[in-house]
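sanity check this fold:
=====
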Amino acid sequence: MYQEQDYISAFKTGDVSSMKNIAVVLVETRYPENIGAAARACANFGVEDLRLVCPSRLDWERMEAMATNIGKSVLGGLKIFDNLEDALSGCSYVVGSTARLGNYRRVYKTLRELAPEVVAYSTSNRIALVFGNEKWGLTNQQLYYCNDVYTIPTEGNTSLNLAQAVVVTLYEIYSRVKDVSLEKPALATFEEQQVMYHYIERVCELVDFVPHNNTVLWMTTIKRMLSRMDLTSKDAKIITGFCRKLLRFASLIKE
């Protein structure tokens, strides 16, 4: 087990360069202070990419005050998007956080269990860590875009403040960098995965496999299952091609 000084030394010598392959994505933030605090957390742990999706309020004075000099560079490179799908562009492995553990959330991992996997993927892939709104977190529709979902255990299953959740998440990942030697393959990009899942959904609809009253939740289950297979770009294209051929064949039969 590495001590804190080892982590500091590793960071200074560039051994945690995989942290630079991580993007922190904040969805529909309500308070500018949390954006600033998240920027500081990113800088603390070597993450340079902070993305916002439809923030309710951008008060740069308050954001800079919470970011302090440490997080100014991250705040200066802030990217803002109109929707989550665009914000995840270029990422191959998307991880969402949730404090709500409903029957359809399919959360099987704690942050500590997931952190080594994030490190392993980050050696060859762009990673997105997605955090939801301070009031209600990530919706089921937003969680659909995630390859995996984790929770941070707390006393009484209470939720953390958004900036606190970012700090805890990045610390757990950062502290696993020196412990993980396994590298994951380069996965299909987010865009390639979206195309693949679009055609899978169309095939499922064709054979009446997806319940009409909860399509998003059913497709989320399918997505989590396939995500465990570490699909590469070639894999995604094969599955997409198969589904397109099947749909074309089905249309010929109907004619």
User: Anything to note?
Assistant: The radius of gyration is 19 Å.
